[in-house]
Amino acid sequence: MCKRDINLAMKGVESFQARLTGVIMRVRFILAVGFLPLVVVPTLSRIHSGIAAAVPPACAPAQQASANPGKGNSKTSPPAPGSERPNKFAASMAALEHGTLTVWLPRTQPRGQPAWEMVNPWDTFFIPKFKQDFPDSNLHFEIMERQALDTALLSPQGQPLPDVALVEDFRDYAPLRESDAVISMWGMSRFDGGRWVIFRQSPHLEAARAFLLWLAHPPHYKPSWSVSTKSLIPTDQADVEALAQEAVRDYVNEDHDALSSIMDNQAARFMTPVHDGIGIFAVFNDVMVVPSIVEPILSFGNSKLAFVLVAASGEGLKDFGMIHSWIILRNEGAGWRVLHLSPGWSLPSSEEVMRSFDGLGFEDGIGDAAPEISLIGPPDHAEFPYRPGPEMEWAKIEPAPTTFILEFQQHFVYARDRDRWAVSDLLLVSPLSDGPTIRKRYSGGTGLCRWRVWAITKGGTVSLSEWRTVTLVP
């Protein structure tokens, strides 16, 4: 047994709570109505599908970053923002070119919710999309009634099962995972909110693994919009992409020290879960993961502020798949540093966030000073009911910045360390207001939280206020 395998165990209520809280916080990237497009928010069932991962059976060494963090490769110019670039994940999907695969899908959602066809039309969108990417694949989709699917999934060992299935109901998923009958999808599908699994008895494991990658990422990726922010010079682009790759790799490997070493001094630190609990959510707690391929798929910005979207595949003893993460980086003259990392998103949700930042129109050559932010309320250490939540207020700035960001960070409920915070929740807030102040209400989880405000100028200069804490009471 290799060393990484030793780390695998089914442990921890804190692990589940931390992952669940962190992902819920991340997906609530809210934009002010009428200011920018609203980000797509994954459903809770998608959150479940993205919180479990493990270590590859072969324990192969993790792929090294293509360049040292913060040191771009000047010999090779990176692709222009928004252009199609070489896709290393396409080779991992090659088994679908002429492969054979049987996939089971539920016709209806659990608990009497509307039919799947009303939410996600398998026959008119999902299946045609797959056939468009892999026209010669021998793929058989079987759409089954919910009761029939439940019965078939829990059939005695040795009975015919598919290669891949979408398992929507936790009552079906938990025993499959606990009995080690399946390999779970790590990450979120582009199409739906269920838990995709590969049955271990499948004779087409390579094609099944390739199918999970296709669910998360297309074989040929190009942004769904025309990227307009193109002030990032090739050397800076190479630097920020290498740094973003390293940040995602450190996050997936849970290497807190390495991640902290490449972060901006003002970046909000956060911790990944400690695997030391017990409870009914043990099925989600084998979360150690080793990344396989970590690649930037989109980057843009200017000489002061940059945004990178990274795709990362990984596999383990019980998990296989891909996540997408977006990263904000800042250069104040001493080199690029990570100002914010938001990991574990689906591709469509990540694109909506990146598109929103692109729409802010950052430019070079603008000599703007760092705005001073003055928080008004609520006061530090205040308490509020978590619904409707506190209204944060700060003074307007003249001239107005391009945008404000309200950053909210939740403390892990079961953490013994008071500095143990989840990944931040960012809310873009318009700088326009009829009054002398800017107000934004926040409604998130319960417990101890901290918050602060960013101001970002057209030239990419970022100012951050002090932190204040607030307790949200159920």
Can you characterise this structure?
This protein has 474 residues and is α+β, with helices and mostly antiparallel strands. It has a domain at 89-216: Periplasmic binding protein-like II (D-Maltodextrin-Binding Protein, domain 2). 24% of the residues lie in helices and 26% in strands. It has 12 helices and 18 strands. Strands 1, 2, 3, 4, 5, 6, 7, 8 and 9 form a 9-stranded mixed sheet that branches. Strand 7 (305-315) and strand 8 (319-331) form a beta hairpin. Residues 1-75, 110-118 and 275-281 have low confidence and may be disordered.
Number of distinct helices: 12
N-to-C terminal Cα separation, in Å? 46 Å
Q: Helix and strand succession?
A: HHHHEHHEHEHEEHHHEEEEHEEEEEEEEE
Number of strands: 18
- The overall average pLDDT, rounded, is 79
CATH class of one domain: Alpha Beta
Share of residues in strands: 25-35%
**What best-fitting shape do the alpha-carbon axes yield?**
globular
Structural class determined from secondary elements: alpha+beta
Given as residue ranges, the uncertain stretches (5+ residues, pLDDT < 50) are: 1-75, 110-118, 275-281
What is the CATH third-level topology name of one domain? D-Maltodextrin-Binding Protein, domain 2
Give the helix proportion (percent range): 10-25%
> How can the largest sheet be summarized?
9 strands, mixed
CATH homologous superfamily descriptor of one domain: Periplasmic binding protein-like II
CATH architecture grouping of one domain: 3-Layer(aba) Sandwich
Radius of gyration: 22 Å
